[in-house]
Amino acid sequence: MGKKAIGIDIGGTGIKGALVDVKDGKLLSERIRMETPEGGRPDEMAKVVQSIVRELRAAKDIPVGICFPAVVQHGVAKSAANVSSEWIDYDADAHFTEALGRSVHMLNDADAAGYAEAKFGAAKKQKGLSILTTLGTGIGTALLNNGVLVPNSELGHLPLEGSTAEKLAAFSVKERENLTWEQWAERLQKYYTLLENLLVPDLFIVGGGVSKEHEFFLPLLKLKTPIVPAELKNAAGIIGAATLANKHD
Ligand code: BGC
Fold first, then answer.
1. 224 secondary structure, DSSP code
2. First-last CA distance in the chain
């Protein structure tokens, strides 16, 4: 096992990558960001990932971890909630391994962020069940039991109030419907209460860009479970993807 890996975080608007020290979860390079191609199709995205990896100029034996906003089962994308449906059944591991000429490990974006938070961030050394939720365009979730990831939990799609959690309480919904922090927190309250009743976690970690503004909504939530902002900010996906790639290499 090497000490370095490349982490790539594919999102709806941008694709970001960096070289990571997987022993301490620190970035060893600048974060390179490129626009996500219109339509988010796999082939075009692969070209952008190729350019980012090329720019990082890492040795050929350094593996790549790629996280992505969909279910990824054994390297194959299985859903496409907010990306092109061409991703469904796309063998991302195989295609990206060929495109990059390196060992590639592909995984869900929330899983990558959750793993990074459990190893290096807000859930470090946390005992029992930690649940990371990312509040962004959609809602992603990661389950970590004593730091071990149970992949593809997809609890953002849980039914809630005749809709789904993601359609009711994602950060994009707050923006689209112009909700106040208080109005949004009422929806989050329902969502986290549901999670708490179903899974009885020991800790909630809140990620996604809006976690920077946690003081406006986390104090409004009344839960039995401690709830804390993510610590690794917008590098969590990159760090988690790289660290897991190194493990699978
Ligand atoms: C997807 C998840 C993803 C989340 C955050 C959801 O719509 O189903 O796979 O983790 O968005 O990007």
1. S
2. 7
Q: Strands, E, within the chain: which ranges? A: 4-10, 14-21, 26-27, 32-35, 64-68, 72-73, 76-77, 104-108, 129-135, 139-145, 148-150, 159-160, 163-164, 203-207, 227-229
Question: Is this model's pTM higher than 0.90 or not?
Answer: yes
Residue 12's pLDDT is 82
- Which of 87, 166, 171 to mutate for ligand 1's pocket (most ligand atoms within 8 Å of CB)? 166
* DSSP-assigned letter for residue 212: G
Residue numbers of the chain with a pLDDT score lower than 70: 1-2, 249
Could you say which architecture CATH assigns to the domain 4-111+235-248?
2-Layer Sandwich (3.30)
Is residue 149 within 8 Å of residue 140, measured between CB atoms? no
CA distance 182 to 216: 9
Residue with tokens 């969909």: 70
Q: What is the pLDDT of residue 95?
A: 87
Closest by Cα among 226, 160, 213 to 191: 160
CATH of domain 124-230: 3.30.420.40
pLDDT at 119: 97
**Ligand 1 mutation pick, 10, 68, 76, 109, max ligand atoms within 8 A of CB:** 109
